[in-house]
Amino acid sequence: MEHLGRFAREFLKALRNLLPIVAVVVLFQWLVFRSMPDDPLTLVAGLLIVAVGIALFLFGLDLSIFPVGKNLANQFVRRGALGLLLPFGFAIGFAASVAEPAVIAIAEQAQLVSDGRINGLALRFVIAGSVGLVLVVGILRVLRGWPVHWLLIAGYAVVLSLTYVAPAEIIGLAYDSGGVTTNIVSVPLIAAIGLGLANSIRGRSLLSDGFGLVALSVMVPMIGVQLYGIWVFRFGDIGAGPVAEPAENPTGWVVGMILGLASMIREVLPIVAVVLFFQWVVLRRRLAHPLRVVTGFAMVLVGLYAFVVGLRIGLFPLGTLMAEQLIAQGVPAMILLFALLIGFATTMAEPALVAIGEQAQAASPGKVGAVTLRVIVAVGVGLGIGFGVYRILTGGPFHYFIMAAYAVAVVLVFFAPRHIIGLAFDLGGVTTSEVTVPLVTALGIGLAAAVEGRDVLIDGFGLIAFASIFPVIAVMVYAMVMERFPRLRKERT
Questions:
Q1: CB count, 10 Å around CB of 390?
Q2: What angle do CA 424, 427, 428 make, to 5 degrees?
Q3: Mean per-residue pLDDT over the chain, rounded
Q4: Cβ-based neighbours of 2, under 8 Å, separated by 6 or more
Q5: Cβ atoms within 10 A of the Cβ of 302, count?
Q6: Which DSSP category does 368 fall into?
Q7: pTM for this predicted structure
Q8: Helix 213-234 to helix 168-180 angle, to the nearest 10 degrees?
Q9: pLDDT tens-digit readout, 192-220
């Protein structure tokens, strides 16, 4: 009964989180398009399935991924097996990224719109290898006590320097690649490893040292992809031609559901395999509470699958249709308003953001509120997507806009409270997950294809990058205001 009651609470919370999306849809359908969706019952069914998926996913995280990740980190530290911790970090980072659907999707899109010049498989390996390497650096940071803000400043200085020399065709893709590496499963596990390490080492702070691994996982793929792009567009051979778009599946929805579930299993299996290998073979220890962990992993898998199915049934078709309707109307103000509102609404429904917000609140009682964080981050995402859409509409060079945004974030690092920096950059990575990425990518490519004088490869990518960096700025500004006026925090609590 206790588990059932907890699931019911998570389900109701998920429904509340989805309300902003419903409000945006209803607002635009009634007031702008003056019509209703053809099948409103399908939309309602999709939302209910999404809510069930989120509830199962969050419940499963608490039973499996969070305790397993923290326990592994604790065991490595207690046994003094720190040399094994670094290969574990690389393996987890690589496994979590190479099979990530968002990484696969963006790699296939890049190969398609570049006429095969960019190799999708090579791009996936560049991204996954970058995430693996950065987790090694991130783990060393926690072990040695290196301040995360210096790593971020140095890393983004390299990112911005490469942007000056990288081909225009690769820049937007590179910044987007950093955003899509952090998915709904890998983010909680990576965060759990960081928190577990910080909790196991004397003198480390959960808030200051436990967060930051996700932030680094966003940053380094930007470097890797830009270097890959410099090689491909300046020294590499032209590809064999565009890949064919995937054909419709003629075998029906039952087979489609089975294939979809198989895809989810493919995403989770590499992570599970790495965890079990290091737990059983390397550390030679049994898994604590194996039945609970297996049940939790199954709930994560089923919840993630239900979540994606619900989005495909109810929200993605409607969101794509609304984007096409707005582009067809050709009213820039309405397109900007839609970008702002849909960015806020989808972010409020991101399960990974909910999970990390709750972990941050637990790590810092009285300093960080989970709901407040989510609202601040959602506002940042809305502003970021709106800013990116404005760039596409006006035709400004992407690298100038994105470099200005990251330059602002780097400057704020010098003034923001030290304890919030790692968390702020982590939250920037969390925002670009399963809800936001498909809608934002479709909007960017649709706008670039519809607006005269825009290039899909150069202008279609980049919205995800703005959706990642603006929440970082928003969280740091919020923390600076709270530190400058502590009375506001007391009034809020």
A1: 16
A2: 90
A3: 79
A4: none
A5: 17
A6: -
A7: 0.72
A8: 150
A9: 778 888 888 877 887 778 888 888 888 88
The DSSP symbol for 38 reads S
* DSSP codes joined into one string, 413-465: HTTS-HHHHHHHHHHHHHTSSTTHHHHHHHHHHHHHHHSTT--HHHHSS-HHH
For tokens 């969050």, the residue is: 58
- Alpha-helical (H) ranges within 277-397 are 290-310, 316-329, 332-348, 351-363, 370-394
Helix (H, G, I), strand (E, B) or coil at 259: helix
User: In 28-119, which residue ranges form alpha helices assigned H by DSSP?
Assistant: 40-63, 65-78, 82-98, 101-113
What separation in angstroms does the CA of 482 have from each of 365, 417, 472, 490? 15, 10, 16, 10
Q: Could you tell me which residues come within 8 angstroms of residue 469 by beta carbon, excluding any fewer than 6 positions away?
A: 384, 402, 405, 406, 409, 428
List the structure tokens of 259.
């294939």
User: Residue 450: what residue type?
Assistant: A
Per-position b or e across 100-133, b if 16+ CB within 10 A of its CB: bbbbbebbbbbbbbbeebbbbeebbbbbbbbbbb
At 126 the pLDDT is 92
User: Which residue ranges make up each domain of the chain?
Assistant: 2-492
Write down the residue that tokens 């932030």 correspond to. Answer: 215
